[in-house]
Amino acid sequence: MNSSALAARGSRRTTLRGVLGSRRSLITTFIALHAVFLIALAPVMVAGAALGDLPLYRHWALEALQGNSWAGIDRPWVYPIGALVPVVLPAILGAAPYQFVWFLLLTAANGVSLWILTDGGRRRSAYPAAWWWMAILLILSPVALLRLEAFTSPLVIVALVLISARPALASVLLTFAAWIKVWPAAVILSAVIVSARRRVVGITAAVVSVGIVGAALLAGSGSHVLSFLTEQDSRGLQLESPLSTPWLWMAIQHVPGAEIYQNWALETREVAGPGDTWMIENASVLMVIAVIVIAGLLIWAHAQAPTRSAHLLLVGALALTTAFVVFNKVGSPQYMLWLAPIVVGGLANGWRTWRLPATLMAIIAVATTVVFPLFYMPLIAGDPAAATVLGIRNLLLVVLLGWAVWEIVRVAVTAPALAAHPTTRSIPLPVE
User: Fold this and answer.
1) pLDDT tens, residue by residue, 109-144
2) Fewer CB near the terminus (10 Å): N or C of the chain?
3) If DSSP codes are grouped into helix, strand and coil, which group holds residue 430?
4) Do 116 and 341 touch, CB atoms closer than 8 A?
5) Which run of H or of E encompasses 63?
6) CB 150 within 8 A of CB 168
7) Closest to 334 in 3D by CA, of 386, 294, 384, 373
């Protein structure tokens, strides 16, 4: 390659770095991204309709505001009681603008998360994480725009940014997010195990939880406030769950007794076949075992390397949350939005260390959207190609879990050697 070609390549790289490192480019892209979302949703908004899970959310909201029948208070509900806030708030202007108000609220939430992540554009080291997060929002937009994770994900990003300097506020955000969808509890658990401010995080989480439950009880919820813990016990193996993979392929291969069927009560597609009863009954046990093992590894790693608490908090949160997905008989596409915010926090904490999980997560996000909504109908019809894409996605989730667990172990194993030989160069350390 001649010198002029090398110079041109160098110039292009410099220009790209300049664009990606520009605060104006970041803000412009955020606005453009959400403008595209708005344009795509405009026909639905103009018609006063709603997409995805929003018609169900709107139904619950209108029941509460107009019929005075509150899910989670007057009757059992599949979601924690805090989910009433993002579900009911978009209905304050009535039924027709529900989709529009929801969009405005999630746009604000995404904007705040990026603002805090980059410290208003001043934290240039967080720009790669911000660009990656916007890419994931685009890739996963069919669920990122239309599920409750639209609000829990930005809350978790903000909490991960603040947890070192303002652990009480971070714990409030994480706890409220966990009372919308349970998964942020994994981040709280990781913080309670390894954070230098674990007492503040734990006590704050307990106080906020008591306050939320107390308010629900005062509103007359009774035992319904905890109904989300048991409402999904009757579910079978959902089609997209990693645990469902053997039975999905049994159904595709027409194994006697295996099938893909519609659970009309829960409006989900599930799979059944020989041996599925054991998995249905023991999936939660497997998840608990995985959580206990990961928590034990975190305790060990923190004891060996207490100075690595920031890194351990993030990889521990990723390991625990991924375990929630891998060992779950329910498998929905929005679950990928449980993992992405933690990767955002990791990228902001150390880009080089988190390049692999970020790459894995990007591929997982693409495969998820290919399966749902693009090829969901062929999948439920038993199409092998669609099932193969889903299988690759689920395998990569297991690989992601393996990376997070291995990283915890690696920190614990290498810490004594680094302490004994602090000047050694043979063991690379993540940039934090």
Assistant:
1) 999 999 999 999 999 999 999 999 999 999 999 999
2) N
3) coil
4) no
5) helix 54-67
6) no
7) 373
For residue 186, the one-letter residue type is A
263 bridge partner residues: 268
For residues 136 and 149, what is the distance between their CA atoms, to the nearest angstrom? 13
Digit-coded pLDDT (tens) for 249-293: 999 999 999 999 998 877 789 999 999 999 999 999 999 999 999
Residues 380-431: tens digit of each pLDDT = 999 999 999 999 999 999 999 999 999 999 999 997 766 556 544 333 333 3
Which residue pairs from 371-375 have beta carbons closer than 8 angstroms and sit at least 24 positions apart in sequence? 371/240, 371/333, 372/142, 372/143, 372/240, 372/333, 373/142
Q: How far apart are CA 432 and CA 427, in angstroms?
A: 15
Q: Decide the pairing of beta strands 237-238 and 268-272.
A: antiparallel
Tokens matching residue 50: 């709603």
User: Full-prediction pTM beyond 0.85?
Assistant: yes
112, HSE (Cβ side, Cα atoms, 13 Å): 17
- Residue 11 confidence (pLDDT) above 90: no
> Tokens standing for 122?
């001043």
